Structures are given as C-alpha cells and as structure tokens.
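Consider the tokenized backbone below.
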C-alpha cells in the first residue's frame, strides 16, 4: 500500500480548550492567544497575542511574540528565536498544552480498499437492526478510575447520565464528556465536571447516588482557590466573570469590567479614526505590553526594549501594526453587540443617573432605542425597574484614551447579575419567558447579540458620562436577583405578557395552575418511539394538554414525536408545547419538551 499523505494538526491535550483539534495550513500564520484572530485560548495566563506558528523552509515553526508568561516546546522555553516543530512536540502556553500530530490522508484507491468491507458489513448490520427490536441508547460516560457516588453506591468507571439531566439541559449524551473528577470538599463523594461544546456542568451525588447539579458554567473556566477556602469548592475564573459556590450552587459573583452594547459608530468619527490610522498616529494603551512579532527572515531582527509603551514614533512597526489592527477590528465590530470595557468615572455615571431621577446603584441600564418597544430604564440594586426621567444615549460615550469618541452605549450591564438579568428580562419582554417559548418573529438576531460572550476587556477604550454632577456608588453590589420583573414599554407600545414555562422531565402526569379556574393537566408518554415499544412516530402522541379546572375536561393540544411547536387557547390563556426530538432510523427520541402558558391577547368567552 502506498504511503499515506499527511497533514499536521495541533491537538489540545490539557487546559481550557482540551480536546480541540486545529489543522495547520502552510499558507496561513496561526496566532495563539486570547484574541479571536487565530486560536483563541481562554486562559488567564495566556497573553492576548502570545505566540504564532508559521510554515517556512518546508517545516512549521513556533515563535513567542512577547507574551508575559513565555512559550515552551517540550518544557524548554522559547526565548526570541523560532523553534522548528516536529511530530510529537508539545507546545505549552499558559496552562494549555498543544501536541503536534499527523492527520492521515489516503489515496482514492486506498479509500475504496478500506471502505468496501465496511460498507458490506454495515449492510448486514442495518438488516439485523431492522429485524431486531430497538434498544435505548447507552447513556454511559467512561472515566479512568472509579467514581465515588456515596456510601450506598459502588464506585464504577462508567457514569450513567440520567435522562432527566439530559432533558433539563437540552443536550445529548453523545455531546458530553467527563473533563475531570475531584473531591474538593473532601466528603468522599466525587464532583464530576462535564463539558459539552458550549457549556460545562459541575455535578455531585446524593447519598443514594442520584445526581445533584452544582452549577451550569461557560467553557474555559479555571480554578482560583483562596487560602481561606481549603476543603471547599474553589472559585472559578471564567471568561470575564468570577463564579462562587454557595447554597444555590455556582453563581456569577464578580464581573471584570462592564459589558456594553454600542450604537453604530458616527460617520465623522469613523473618518477621523481612519485619518489617524493612515497617518500612523496610534497612541492606544493596551491592557498589557505588546511586543513585536518576530520577522520571518531570521532570528535576530526586530528586537527592542521590553514593555515599551511610547507613541508610534518610538514604537517598532510591528507593534504599531498590532495596535492599529486591534482598533480597526473594534471600530468595525462596534454595531450593537457586547464588549467588555472599562468605566472611566463611576462618580460621573452616578451623577448622570441622579440627573435622570435614579439615586441608587444599578445593575443594568437601558437607553432609549436600545431595543424596539422598550423605554429607557434601569434595574436598581433592590431589583426594581425604574424608568429614566429623560434619555441617556447622547450623554454616554465610549472613547479611546487619546481620547477620541468611538460610539454611544445603548445598554450597559454593570454587574454579572445585571448581565444575567438583562438577558432574561429582554427575552421575557419579547417572548413571554426567558427561554424564548413565545419569541416574536425577527427577534432571534437581537437576542443572539444580547447573549453573546463579551470576552476579555479591551483596555484602550472606556465608558464615560457627560455629566457635571459627581456622586458615589453608581454600581450595585454583586448579589443574586430573584422575583419576576417586567420591562417598562415605550410610550404607545403594549406591555409584555409574561408567562410561565415548565420543562418536562419524566413520563406521567404533570400540572400547571394559571390564575383563575384554569388548570392544565399534561400527560407525557415514553421518551422514545419505535419498533421496541410498538410506536409509530408520525402517528403517535407524545404529550397532551387538557384543561380540567373550568368544567368538563377539554383537550387544548396534542404534540407528536417528530417535534415542533403546537398551540392551544382556552378562556384567558394561551398554551404552547415545544418538543425537540431527534429522528433515528424508523424511530424518534425526544430530547427536550416544554409546556408554557401566558395571558391571551384577546380572551375568549
């Protein structure tokens, strides 16, 4: 057999992006760091621009570009010279380790020789599967050592994931993997850290071995233990937010900077920035010193004094180019989406709020025209929605430190809990519930921008308030916010119709009790439909909702196994069922199911 063609991959074997595989391209330079322009590594010990991998002279080379913590190849620190990479080398940046590996490629003839026996075998397997009864998919995750689940349960290396957990979180077991197993609280019962593509979970176990979810987290969190917390759960430093563990599990505790959504940049400002960039008059000050990239032609060029922060006249061209690119990227992305920025003067922001009738600290601020139909308002530290006496967008400004105006905020989340509340409150305004059950058409894009990850702070821009007054305590304390809230609608706009949504966990009968005589009875069938349980997905009913409280029982809706949205109305309420299912051959499996109600726009007699 001919020798297979090969391509070189970078595989993360530990750290925040463990398991990720990236293909190296000979014609493209791969930048490693916290920037999104390359391989983004959410590791607090990784610099924004940390290292780069280039292809020269028939080989891949790695070079540090002035990182704060250095770049290592097989535990040897790469100083200023490029290091030639070979298969098996391990690159270490921060706490993340990346192995250089080969991807196999075969010729077409070899692919036929390999695939033909597999196709024949698959045909026999399909025939046998169709003749045999269907079985529920295995829901086990394997770990390298026995997992301790309590004194009443024997430890095993296979962890069976409850269907109720999968349905509550909206994930499939095939999307999950065990990232690590710990016992931080030293109670002889392990904590299991699970990861999917966009989320992580910390779970532990009750005395009988049942699951206890300790928190839902973003990916890329790192332990941040404190001296006085020995024997307990660690703080978690996630991208831009510190999570703490308490009675309610892991919750956001502290936000790095403030999260700002910007209005489109003014044309005059864009022209002014373009002129400055063209003239190379860049004086932005980043969060950390940016050292120049190595020149590709040799190992000795491009050196300068470490940590220089002078103007472009004192900066090498490489550093000026990096700063220029960062500013251009920020300006180009300044349409409404989240940015994590700095606050120039909390005292002026407090005075700015007092001028508009708000004299208490706030969690979030919404300016006029930020979201269609929503008035200018704030969420105070006490959890109260307060309208502003007059508009706010023109008196808030985002500027770089030159200073030059970049744009105007339309909304600001001052705290981590304010950020969470803002996303939920706007979703409820447009969709009745925070989980978008009744989301109005065309609002998906708006909510996606609202929910986007703000990433790391941009240290060369900050938010200021154009206010002559100076007060204190503009920002609320970080504390969880409970209770239902409703945003104040703009003048002439009908207010939201908040509803109640319930996620269904198990087969059987459940109940929802809206105000009044209405009572909703929900009958839920098996979560799988196929040959094994004599069920036809296209004809069988998965759930049915009946109204049983206002006289004779009335069926409001019935939803099948193929999923989708089903609506019903009774008296003064609207009812909706949302079923998400996966078709598997001649069967179907329900992944998540929700039933919700809200007041009807026009009550029926």
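A designed sequence for it:
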């Amino acid at each position: 057999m001919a020798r297979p063609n090969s391509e070189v991959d970078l595989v993360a074997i530990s750290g925040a992006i463990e398991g990720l595989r990236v293909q190296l391209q000979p014609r493209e330079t791969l930048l490693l760091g916290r920037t999104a322009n390359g391989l983004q590594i959410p590791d607090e010990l990784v610099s924004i621009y940390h290292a780069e991998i280039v292809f020269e002279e028939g080989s891949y080379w790695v070079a540090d570009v002035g990182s704060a913590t250095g770049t290592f190849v097989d535990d040897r620190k790469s100083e200023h010279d490029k290091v030639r990479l070979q298969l098996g080398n391990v690159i270490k940046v921060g706490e993340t380790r990346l192995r250089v590996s080969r991807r196999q490629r075969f010729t077409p003839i070899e692919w036929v020789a390999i695939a033909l026996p597999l196709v024949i075998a698959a045909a026999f397997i399909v025939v046998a599967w169709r003749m045999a009864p269907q079985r529920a998919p295995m829901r086990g995750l394997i770990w390298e050592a026995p997992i301790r689940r309590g004194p009443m349960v024997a430890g095993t290396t296979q962890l069976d994931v409850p269907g109720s957990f999968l349905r509550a979180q909206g994930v499939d077991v095939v999307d999950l993997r065990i990232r690590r197993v710990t016992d931080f609280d030293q109670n002889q019962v392990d904590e299991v850290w699970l990861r999917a593509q966009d989320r992580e979970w910390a779970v532990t176990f009750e005395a009988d071995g049942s699951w206890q979810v300790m928190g839902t987290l973003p990916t890329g969190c790192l332990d941040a233990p404190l001296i006085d917390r020995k024997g307990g759960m660690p703080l978690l430093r996630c991208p831009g937010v510190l999570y703490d563990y308490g009675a309610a599990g892991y919750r956001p505790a502290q936000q790095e900077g403030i999260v700002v959504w910007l209005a489109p940049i003014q044309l005059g400002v864009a022209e002014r920035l373009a002129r400055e960039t063209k003239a190379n008059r860049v004086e932005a000050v980043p969060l950390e010193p940016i050292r120049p990239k190595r020149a590709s032609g040799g190992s000795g060029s491009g050196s300068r004094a470490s940590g220089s922060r002078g103007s472009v006249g004192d900066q090498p061209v490489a550093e000026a180019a990096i700063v220029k690119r960062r500013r251009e990227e920020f300006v180009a992305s300044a349409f409404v989406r989240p940015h994590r920025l700095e606050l120039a003067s909390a005292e002026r922001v407090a005075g700015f709020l007092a001028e508009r009738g708000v004299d208490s600290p706030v969690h979030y601020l919404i300016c006029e025209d930020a979201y269609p139909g929503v008035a200018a308002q704030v969420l105070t530290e006490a959890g109260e929605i307060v309208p502003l006496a007059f508009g706010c967008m023109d008196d808030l400004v985002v500027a770089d430190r030159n200073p030059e105006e970049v744009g105007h905020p339309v909304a600001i989340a001052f705290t981590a809990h304010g950020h969470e509340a803002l996303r939920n409150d706007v979703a409820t305004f447009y969709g009745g519930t925070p989980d978008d059950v009744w989301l109005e058409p065309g609002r998906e894009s708006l909510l996606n921008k609202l929910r986007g990850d703000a990433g790391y702070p941009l240290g060369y821009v900050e938010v200021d308030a154009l206010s002559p007054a100076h007060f204190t305590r503009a920002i609320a304390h970080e504390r969880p916010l409970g209770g239902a809230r409703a945003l104040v609608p703009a003048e002439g706009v009908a207010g939201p119709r908040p509803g109640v949504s319930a996620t269904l966990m198990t087969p059987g009968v459940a109940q929802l009790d809206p105000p009044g005589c209405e009572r909703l009875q929900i009958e839920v069938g098996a979560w799988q439909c196929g040959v094994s349980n004599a069920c036809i997905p296209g004809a069988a009913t998965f759930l049915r909702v009946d109204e049983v409280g206002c006289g004779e029982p009335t069926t409001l809706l019935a939803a099948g196994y193929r999923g989708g949205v089903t609506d019903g109305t009774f008296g003064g309420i609207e009812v909706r069922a949302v079923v998400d299912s996966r078709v598997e051959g001649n069967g179907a499996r329900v992944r998540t199911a929700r039933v919700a109600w809200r007041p009807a726009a026009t009550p029926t007699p």
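Helices lie at 108-131, 163-169, 267-278, 317-332, 346-355, 416-431, 444-451.
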